[in-house]
Fold this protein.
Amino acid sequence: MDILGTPAGRLRPGDSNPGTVTMKPGGVGGNIARALRRLDWQVRLAAPLGEDPNGDTIARALARDGIDTSLCPRIPGRRSGIYLLIEDEHGDLVTAVSDMAIMEQMTPGQLETRAEEMMRADWVVLDANLPEETLLWASDRAAVRFAADPVSAVKAPRLRGLLPRLELIKPNVREAEALTGLTLERAGEAGLARAIADLGTRRVFLTLGAGGAYCLGQDGEGHMDCFPGPVVDTNGCGDAFFAAALTAVSRGMNTAEVGRYALAAAALKAAGRCIDERRIGAAVSAGGVENDE
């Protein structure tokens, strides 16, 4: 469950800020699943939910979005994951607290009964909220295409052992630094992306916030700027980018085409628009997102 605090005016650190607080089902895995569903994927989500009101709300919302939740265990006595974030007046993240302790309950034993479903999938998307032993277990047992999101700099190192198995990864700068031990200042964006590729991952999409993305694949690499457009809220833009990149890769697009497609989806999300094929195609063709559809 995402809990989002937005100030009514300029954010004043260390003070009580008038504004709005909203709650909605979120999480990296949930957000990516919703975005993939809007791009016409059939999606099954395997994520633990607590036996609490938030768990009930999340399960209902996922079902309404057309996502199969039959692989989501309900964990007695545990609270569903909560992500508390504060953004500034521009919609940019200032700070956040992630309470994902329930994810430690998603053990290899929990996934054992779900392994057959995983092996029938076209893709398995993993995020680093999962325990490292579970991530390694999944990558060893399913002979499918894997993609992963590092989630945060703290949790990104959990993916190090999986990098040779990954078809696609989407780190931001801090996550890439945690994965490689390098810094943006010393290696540059190209150096960070190449270091991950050198560890075995075939496609690396290093997101740079308002700076765009560095896109690397076996057919080329390069920096790409963000698509211009209004910015309402940047929360979830990376998840929209990830889902669109996975969609574009699955359709055989080259690295530059994947980057444009994914950046268009992120721009739509930042503008507060739903992502779908029509809107992404229109944004790619126009080179940006219009203020009014």
